[in-house]
Amino acid sequence: MSQRQQLEENRHNDDVALSNFLASLMDYTPTIPDELAEHYLAKSGFQCPDVRLVRLVAVATQKFIADVATDALQHCKARQAAVVKDKRDKLQKDKRLTLAMEDLSKALQEYGVNVKHQEYFADSPSAGLDAASRDE
């Protein structure tokens, strides 16, 4: 078989796989509702009557959000592990993880999205409060 025939066969196989994948999207309900995906696609100037493409964008968006959340979680764990090393004397009773803007910003930076927050932004409910109001 010549190289050209192999390329055409590979292209045909890719087309069949893509067609099968798009057909499977009709039976799949993504986390992001079709209406929400259509709204933001229309807002950006994209209009397509094919619900499969809307769902494809919703699935890609869902994957992106999951990847960013996973990376932010890893940054959060690393940050809290560093805090625990610094405070070896204190017992840490609360082991809940809290997503901080710092963690989210680092995760998004890995995907080329730069997020900067205002200086008045607070990562904790007590940030910015003076000592007197915290003691009350």
Automatic annotation (TrEMBL):
It is found in: Nucleus. One of its GO terms (biological process) is transcription initiation at RNA polymerase II promoter. One of its GO terms (molecular function) is RNA polymerase II general transcription initiation factor activity. The keyword Transcription applies. Keywords: Nucleus, Transcription, Transcription regulation. It comes from the Eukaryota. Belongs to the TAF10 family. This is Transcription initiation factor TFIID subunit 10. It comes from Daucus carota subsp. sativus.
